[in-house]
TrEMBL record:
This is Mlx-interacting protein. One of its GO terms (molecular function) is protein dimerization activity. Residues 70-122 form the BHLH domain.
Amino acid sequence: MHEIQFSQINSPASSLLVYQNIPLVNESDSDIQFVHYSQILSHDEQFDNSSEDSVGNNETNSATLSHAELRHQIHIISERRRCAKINDAFEGLCKQLPNTYIGHKMSKVALLQKAASHLENSSRKEKMLLGVIKHLDQNCVYLGAELERCVHCVGL
């Protein structure tokens, strides 16, 4: 599974549309056409050429991506990459939550609700533990004072 990333190379010899393979989420993402960049015409060039040879160029026109089609395919690739990043983030969130299993499919809304609930519970637990720490500190101060009083009474 690979994602196609387009980039333009400008050189004196030619201008090429090149690609590199990047992992994708779905196998169906690999059905993108590749064309030489010189085949991608501006809107005006397409209009001019269509009036000249509209009958004889059906085969070459069908193999060529228009600029709009190329932009659309690049947009689709970008959107798939964005969705994959979002899904990866949700999977990472799922791993951080207790009692959440990756194999068990959970809706994104349910996962966000569970995360919010977990954060609220963690915040509540933190406040409770801070209260316990404060109480233990007070006990330490009290016991330290009692120890001083006992030592003073015994005369050590």
